[in-house]
């Protein structure tokens, strides 16, 4: 097999990585600094002068970090005592070694995946160094706002689910399949609500997404829903005894509306007996602005339970009950907030890899998980998905994301038929895919069980340019 291509990086001017590091990451740091400053009175009320002094020190730390980023300074080791600190510093040493004497790892020269993860870990370091505000989540305010901005969309999906559950036992196989496809697409399009892409600006779902699914189908790039349905259905049919388990693992992405859509999908899987267990995996620390932490997960359930809308409240109570019964399980392993691509999981976090091997299918949500699955490299878009995974295959896995970063795979046949609207000349495959990524097209891809030759997995494809309105 040919060597893997180079990592996406800010050194490629004009790339999505370059503009992320140049513009979006400093904006996010500025928002964190502003958030801390606006909470100054709250820190004083809770902690007195110690809280105010901690806020000042954290802002000073973050201002220095922003300057390091904007002036392309070398990355420096972490200097706190969290359990992941040695792993982060070992990874920095690794980056120094692979630079082959081409200078110290720095913000614009190092791999984009490492740089972006490193920034969020340094934000956490700024707070860890400054008790008594060391448990403050600088992104919580934005996540809460996003949740409440999406109230009508949340009511719509909760209502749809509860109406569906009334008669779910009467649905035949084709009807179940239709509902599964519908809720899977809702979960897919929920992934657009990503506050790291909008640099913290409001990016919430405000309309009833269910009413737009038919209009959105033309925006799908790679569609493996049929294969995913077959995998789950066959697993269900093999579950013949009470001891038999069909386990679905969902690697979560954003809190807010997307998390609701993931919970709705999980509820359907449980109620239809397509899954006997659903395991959710969230982030260990505040991450990429809106990524789901354990606090976000629990906060969301409490908000739903206390809602004055009957079906929202019913969802919250039922989901809390699933967790108490052990039908649903929440995990937050620290590997998810390390800079490593997933192909190194078996070496770096063998306990997590072993846990995922128990799964019947793993669903990876969102752009960052997709980047870590595939190494965040300058792959050709015709490369098969399984090749980019670099032997990461603990169980059958499926990636569901709306495109932000330009990496994508299995785009072969129909891509050559696409031209921009109004254009008469064919563009190169890479230009077409970059255009699609910028426009917000989306995809999902499935890798079958390790015992099945991955190359034999049929991939259905379609391609359009543009992004549907929320």
From TrEMBL:
Transmembrane segments: none annotated. Its EC number is 2.1.1.-, 3.1.3.-. The keyword Acyltransferase does not apply. Its cofactor is Mn(2+); Ni(2+). One of its GO terms (biological process) is DNA damage response. InterPro entries: ARMT-1-like_metal-bd_sf (IPR036075), ARMT1 (IPR039763), ARMT1-like_metal-bd (IPR002791). Residues 20-408 form the Damage-control phosphatase ARMT1-like metal-binding domain. It comes from the Eukaryota. Keywords: Hydrolase, Manganese, Metal-binding, Methyltransferase, Nickel, S-adenosyl-L-methionine, Transferase. Belongs to the damage-control phosphatase family. Sugar phosphate phosphatase III subfamily. This is Sugar phosphate phosphatase. It comes from Alligator mississippiensis.
